[in-house]
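Q: I'm writing up a methods section and want to include an example of the input and output format. Could you take the sequence below and give the corresponding predicted structure tokens, formatted cleanly so I can copy it straight into the document?
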Amino acid sequence: MADEKKLKDGLDDILGDAKEGAKKASDKASELADDAKETMNEFAGSAKEAFGGVNGENKKLVAGLLGIFLGYFGVHKFFLGYNKEGIIQLIASVVTCGAVGIVGFIEGIIYLTKSDEEFYNTYQVGKKPWF
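A: Here is the clean output for your methods example:
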């Protein structure tokens, strides 16, 4: 009986330690998630500040360069306000291990080869999401 009592006490101690460790891990994960949200909000604010005053001509140049260099992430789509298409581009790139990134590269080149007026009318006013 004494051995069973020692075993039960030992198991209870281990279980208590495990519960305590799980609680600490949960608290730390919540803290890290809050930090990540705060960092994301700061980044979004900085990006809006940096690109908020971009006019049609500059938007064409920035969108084209983003398409060429970061198109596989769909960054150029988000920059132009096409959030749904940006998410689709991002997911497709992850699923295909970046192979769909060629779409962003091609779109970047198309953006840069259009005249300022044509780019503005097509992608900013007309809101044409693909090519």
